[in-house]
Amino acid sequence: MTKVARQQTEEAFLDAAERLLVQDGHAGITTRALASEAGANHGLVHYYFGSMENLLARVLERFTERLIARQRAMYAAGDVPFVDKWRAAMRYLDADRSYQKIWFELQSLAWSRPELRERVAQVNAEWRAVLSDALAEPRERAGIEMPLDALVSLVITFNEGIILERLAGIEAGHASLIEWIDDWISRRDLE
How far is residue 94's CA from residue 140's CA, in Å, rounded to a whole number? Predict the structure, then answer.
């Protein structure tokens, strides 16, 4: 098999696993179902990825790479007020529900599979780095005395709480909370 053909097959497996993680969750994915979805031989899953867990972790890492590139570009836009960046980030909470499902599927899988914990923790560290860069200057400008790492943890916990509840079909109070934070940011002249 040529290098190009191998790469195309690997991408087909990753794309198929991404769809199946969203649709069925990690517990519902078998090697045969994945291969059927990808249109490839089921023996190639382990040949290319070593294990199903490694394949699923790679799905999360690949998806994260795309979203982190988008977030960094959004926060780096110097001519856009911070409040507008915050509003865009909150819109992504709605737009990125497929990613969120994959993120939580892999987190739950890592709870009982120590070999995945490091990779999931690395994804978390990447998100923390994005938020640290994004929040450092507005935190100073708003006079927020909370340490930056604590503020980043607060924002991550806030986002994950909303995501977790939404995955369970609960959305009570989310819009009001986001609106209150938006108003708080606006009153701090972080325009």
Answer: 28
**What is the pLDDT at residue 1?**
64
Give pLDDT tens digits for 55-80: 999 999 999 999 999 999 999 988 89
Q: pLDDT tens across 42-56, in order? A: 899 999 999 999 999
Give me the pLDDT at residue 189, please: 67
Mean pLDDT in residue range 107-117: 92
Handedness of CA 161, 162, 163, 168 (dihedral sign): positive
Provide DSSP, 108-133.
HHHHS-HHHHHHHHHHHHHHHHHHHH
3-state secondary structure of 168: coil
Angle between helices 3-24 and 97-111 (to 10 degrees): 90
Q: How far apart are CA 29 and CA 166, in angstroms?
A: 22
CA distance 113 to 97: 24
Contact 35, 10 (CB under 8 A): no
Distances (CA, A) of 145 to 99, 136, 140, 178, 186: 32, 12, 8, 21, 18
